[in-house]
Amino acid sequence: MELDQKIDLVHELDGHIMRCVRDQNGNHVIQKCIECVPTEHIGFVVSAFQGQVTSLSMHPYGCRVIQRILEHCGGNSQGQCIIDEILQWVCILAQDQYGNYVTQHVLERGKAHERSQIITKLAGQVVTMSQNKYASNVIEKCFQHGDIAERDLLIRRIVEQTEGNNNLLVCLVV
């Protein structure tokens, strides 16, 4: 299919983006549009998500679409708006059944300052987060992808938050 045809096809979806994202099959169409059409032609798709990134990140299909946006549009201003909303709500997303995947995605593929913001925000609740079924995976990614200073911050917060407890976690970390 020629690029012009792809662009025309994507524009037929204008006004129906959110319905497609939340649909079992439609979300795959939106993901393909994001993957196959240059970002300068899908601005209206990304715009449809602004202000709804958190709810989409916590949706079983929406989280997949948000991850595709991060992969293909993360370098432009619209993609930055998506990242900014994720960073604003990261403590909630990290604990969510689907939102944790979006958070992990930013930790794995995001810029260093984005990773740092996530780690700093989660460090204050690191013990609680590490005991949560979903957030524990995010905390693991923080240790895997954080720099030495960020890992040190997490360890210090674990020790502070478990001080006085004979906690196996402290023994393992120290």
UniProtKB/TrEMBL annotation:
Gene Ontology BP term (one): regulation of translation
Keywords: Repeat, Translation regulation
Presence of keyword RNA-binding: no
Annotated Gene3D superfamilies: Leucine-rich Repeat Variant
Pfam families named among the record's database cross-references: PUF
Pumilio repeat boundaries on the chain: 12-47, 48-84, 85-120, 121-156
GO molecular function: RNA binding
Domain PUM-HD: 1-174
TM stretches of this protein: none
Name this protein carries in UniProt: PUM-HD domain-containing protein
